[in-house]
Amino acid sequence: MRSLFLLLSKSRLLKEWSSRSRIAQTAAGRFVAGPTVGEAIAAIISAGTRGLTTTLDHLGENTETEEQARTAASDYVYALDCLAEAGVQSHVSVKLTQLGLAIDTAFCIENVSRVASRARDIGTFLRIDMESSAYTTRTFEVLSALRERFDNVGIVIQAYLYRSQSDVEAMISAGIPVRLCKGAYDEPPSLAYPNKADVDQNMVDLMHRLLSEEARLAGARLAMATHDEKIIEATKAFVSTHAIPKEEFEFQMLYGIRTGLQETLANDGYGVRVYVPYGTEWYPYYLRRLAERPANVWFILSNLFRN
Ligand SMILES: Cc1cc2nc3c(=O)[nH]c(=O)nc-3n(C[C@H](O)[C@H](O)[C@H](O)COP(=O)(O)OP(=O)(O)OC[C@H]3O[C@@H](n4cnc5c(N)ncnc54)[C@H](O)[C@@H]3O)c2cc1C
Question: How far is the CA of 52 from the centre of ligand 1 (A)?
Fold first, then answer.
C-alpha cells in the first residue's frame, strides 16, 4: 500500500484531477491549513494559543522551470513578510526541488538564499526538508553553501537511510541543527532499511547521538519529528535519565496528525513545533500522508459518505 501511494504521488494526471476536485480538496484539508498564507497564519496563531510553535511550509516540489522556482522563492519571501507584518513568530521549511534543485544547484542556492536572507531579517529559522535520495547529496551541498552565509539554517535527516549515521556525525561536527524523521519516500533496499523495526531502531540510535553532550554543545540542536509514541517515550526516557533540559531539544509533528498528543506534550513542558503546510500544490504531500497510514483512506471515505 505504501509503495502504491508513493507511486501515485508522482502521477501528473491524478495531480491535475485532484486540483479540480472539490472532494479531493476537502479530504486533503485535514492535513493542509488552506490555500493561502492568511489561512496558514490563522493556523499558526491557533497553534500558539495551545502552547505550540510552528514551521510554515509553502507546498510545492519538483518545479520544472526557472520561472516557477523563482516564483516559489518570491512566495516564501512574501510569506515571511506577512509573518512579520502580522507580528507572528514561525520558522519556515522549504523543499529544494521547489526552489530549482532539479534544474541547477547554483540556481537553487540563489533562490534559497533569498528566503534564508529574509528569514534572517525577521529573526527566524529556515529548515531544509529532505526529499528523495536522488537529491540527498545535492541537498547537503546546498546546505553547506548556505551555512557559509547564514547561521539560521538547518537540515533534516531521515533515519531510514543507511548513510544517515555519517550525515549525523557531519552535522554534529559542523554544529548544524537537525530535524530527525523516519523518511517519507520510496527508497530501494540498497539505500534504506526495508524493515520498519530497523528504521525505528536507527531513529532511536540517532536520537541518542544527537542528544549527546557533544552534539548539544556543538549546536546540532535536535528536533524529533515523529508521531510514534514508542519513539517519543524513548526520547523522554533518554532525556530524563541524562538530565537533559527540555529547552535543548523539541518534538515536531505534522498539522492535523495526533493533535491531542501534540497538546499533551506541550502541557507537560516539552517544546512542540507543528509543521503547517499551505498552498494549492498539496497533492504529493497529501499522498505521502496517505502512504504513511493507509487507514486514512478509509477514514476519509467514510467521512465523505457520512456527509
Ligand atoms: C515535522 C515533520 C517534518 C517532516 N519532514 C520530513 C522531511 O523533510 N523529509 C521526509 O522524508 N519526511 C519528513 N517527515 C515525515 C516522516 O519522515 C514520516 O514519514 C512521518 O512522520 C511518519 O512517521 P512517524 O515517525 O510519525 O511514525 P509512523 O510509525 O509512521 O507512525 C506512528 C503513528 O503516528 C500516526 N501517524 C503517522 N503518520 C500518520 C498520518 N499520515 N496520518 C495519520 N496518523 C499518522 C499513527 O498513529 C501511527 O501509528 C516529517 C515528519 C514530521 C512530523
Answer: 18
Cβ of residue 158 lying under 6 Å from some atom of ligand 1: yes
User: For residue 228, which atom of ligand 1 is closest to its CA?
Assistant: 32
Q: Are 262 and 217 in contact (CB under 8 A)?
A: no
Given phi > 0 = left and psi -120 to 50 = alpha, else beta, which region is 204?
alpha
Considering only CA atoms, which of 150, 92, 86 is closest in space to residue 125?
Answer: 92
| Residue appearing with cell numbers 520561472 | 67
The mean-pLDDT minimum among 22-31, 40-49, 62-71, 106-115 falls in: 22-31
**Contact by Cβ (8 Å): 112, 128:** yes
Q: Judge contact between 85 and 46, C-beta under 8 A.
A: no
User: Residue 307 above 60 pLDDT?
Assistant: no
Distance CA 11, CA 129 (A): 21
| Percentage of the residues of the chain whose pLDDT score is greater than 70 | 97
By the 8 A CB rule, do 172 and 209 touch? yes
pLDDT band at 301 (very low <50, low <70, confident <90, very high): low
| Mean pLDDT, rounded, for 44-69 | 97
Cα-to-centroid distance, 107 and ligand 1 (Å): 30
Active-site hit among 57, 129, 186, 200: 129
Residue 127 Cβ inside 6 Å of ligand 1? The answer reads no
Residues 6+ apart with CB under 8 A from 296: 289, 290
Answering whether pTM is above 0.90, one says: yes
Measured from the CB, is residue 163 less than 6 Å from ligand 1?
A: no
